[in-house]
Amino acid sequence: MTGDLVLRQARFPDGRQTDMVIRAGRIVSIGDVSAGEVPAGQELDCAGAMIAPGFVNAHIHPGQTFVGGPWVDYDYGDTVPKRARAEAEYLASHGRMNSLKNCYTQFREAIRRGSTHVRGHIDVGSCGLAELEDALKAREAFRGYLDVEYVAFPSNGILNMRTEPVPTLAGAVELGVECLGGADPCDRDRDPVRSIDLTLGLAADAGCRVDLHLHERGTLGLFTMQLLLDKAERLGLEGRLTFSHAWCLAGLSDEAFGPYARRMKELDIRLVTHVPGHVPFPSLRQARRFGLVYGVGTDNMRNLWGPYGMNDMRERVMLLAYLSDFRRREDLEMAYDAGTYGSAAVLGLQDYGLEEGCWADCVVFPQEHRACALLEATFPHFVIKRGRLVAQDGRLTDDVPVYAGS
Q1: Which of 211, 282, 324, 368 has the most CB atoms within 10 Å of its CB?
Q2: What is the dihedral angle through the alpha carbons of 303, 307, 312, 316, rounded to the nearest 10 degrees?
Q3: What is the pTM of this model?
Q4: What would the pLDDT profile of 1-15 be if each residue is shown by its tens digit?
Q5: Which of the four pLDDT bands, split at 50, 70 and 90, describes residue 78?
Q6: What DSSP line would sit under 75-122, residue for residue?
């Protein structure tokens, strides 16, 4: 990043209304500055609008979406296993989607809606490494506009992959994924011990992290979680696991939740929710009481799993607050922060935030504070990535990559 950017009179979370100076993509000073104190560069007048770190979307599926194309009538099924089978059948009969185009579509939506980082789950179970190869091309194209990390994800379970699991997942790591994934060892793989041993063993051997889809509910889900905790401890995977969804933890009393939460904290295991509307999800308040890292993702963007979603993290954390019955400002802002600092902690981001020395990855909303932005905003007024203006009022700047293929 060349040149400087000065944000004038932004309202910070502590109530200060002041300036922020950015050089070489980082925040170098926060405080009132005169025109002569900084070299000539671009200035943006925030006029008292609130500033916050950019959203971190901790769970998306960038290779698959129907957005940008014609409407598709599709049988989504009424359970997770049925939806997984329907997805596999659709891809088998229609061929894989244009995952390169879909990544461009999803990344552009994420940027204009205020995300500066995303973690994408890439299906390596249905078509080998082809979707990942497209996703890596998209990641390179968006470098400097959006930070992207990937999970190699066998969408229908590691034991149901259409290619051999070990060489495929090892190949994904070699290509550059940061995490290995998995899904519902009981419901999908029907052999949880073998499924977990294989997934976590591969991650331990490769030295990478793990992000698992855990939709199983009730005692079945808790049984799976116990197996995962035991195996993670035996393999020394502390600090390397994320449990996405974790529906089995929803609705538990503190007495029932406590043993799992304490082990998760000991092993530094993080939680991510996509705030499902049809089933309960782990409580943010409860997770905070037990000191767990809790992040948020938007999950699907109108694809083979559901017709909803536009990679809008502000909307998603608003739904988190709404479905949690949050009404006080401090609770609304706790929900907002789960989609920024919480998700950043899930991904282990360095130099993230609004302090001097942090990367200048931030959003400015035309409201006075985060609670108002959560409830009233549509698009951010400004989206800044590494000190570069990349979107304004829902419009991307002309230099943000556009898909040019067929």
Answers
A1: 211
A2: -120
A3: 0.96
A4: 345 899 999 999 999
A5: confident
A6: ---SSHHHHHHHHHHHHHHH----HHHHHHHHHHHHHHTTEEEEEEEE
How long a stretch of residues is the chain?
A: 406
Residue type, 159: L
- How many Cα atoms within 13 Å fall on the side-chain side of residue 205? 12
Among 337, 249, 261, 256, smallest CA distance to 56 is for 337
Tokens coding 395: 């419009």
Rounded to whole angstroms, the Cα distance separating 286 from 251 reads 10
What stretch of H or E contains 127? Answer: none
Tell me the per-residue pLDDT of 100-148, one tens digit each, with 9 for 90 and over: 999 999 999 999 999 999 999 999 998 899 999 999 999 999 999 999 9
Residues 6+ apart with CB under 8 A from 165: 154, 158, 159, 198, 202
Q: Which amino acid, one-letter code, is at 333?
A: E
SS (H, E, C) 153-220: ECCCCHHHCCCCHHHHHHHHHHHCCCEEEEECCCCCCCCHHHHHHHHHHHHHHHCCEEEEECCCCHHH
Bridge partners for 148 per DSSP:
118
Q: DSSP of 128-161, one letter per residue? A: TTHHHHHHHHHHHHTTTT-EEEEEEE-TT-GGG-
Helix (H, G, I), strand (E, B) or coil at 352: coil
Pair of tokens at residue 65: 């979406």
